[in-house]
Specification:
This protein has two helices and six strands. With 136 residues, the protein is of the alpha+beta class. The chain has one domain (2-123). It has a three-stranded antiparallel beta sheet with strand order 2-1-3, covered by helices on one side. Strand 1 and strand 2 form a beta hairpin. The termini are far apart.
Length: 136
């Protein structure tokens, strides 16, 4: 089990679109919550605008021994709307190997019509969007 932290800019979210920032994957919910609080209080953009956070518990497939991984692989598929925002997102559980994630991606592509697909690797505890964001 790992915990995925996403911060959301509520002012830029609408209808079926959410302006999300994937911050990272963590081994405990507490680590994810602590990181969320830090970002919302200290990191440019997140502390200046109406942002909130969500933590999603993600299963690690094919991990019967419940090994605490150093990294996980993750599959996402999505469409884009007329504003090029990512919508209709489908996601896989997490995997320990790229091969297993690629296999899952092929299965998901057969079951879901999406225009874009990504197989990504995330190191546990690595932080993304550390420098925050600015609106233009």
């Amino acid at each position: 089990m790992v915990y995925r932290l996403i911060l959301t800019d509520r002012e830029l979210s609408y209808d079926n679109y959410s302006q999300d920032f994937l911050i990272g994957f963590f081994l405990t919910q507490g680590q994810a919550e602590e990181t969320a609080r830090y970002y919302l209080e200290n990191v440019q953009g997140f502390c200046e605008y109406d942002c909130t956070y969500g933590i999603v518990k993600k299963e690690i497939a094919d991990n019967p021994d419940h090994i605490a991984p150093k990294s996980v692989w993750f599959v996402q598929g999505w469409n884009t709307n007329e504003y090029l925002d990512e919508i209709d997102i489908v996601e896989s559980p997490c995997f320990l190997t790229e091969e297993r994630a690629q296999e899952e991606c092929r299965l998901m592509q057969r079951a879901n019509e999406r225009t874009e697909w990504a197989v990504s690797c995330y190191c546990i505890g690595d932080l993304h969007w550390k420098d925050g964001f600015v609106r233009v």
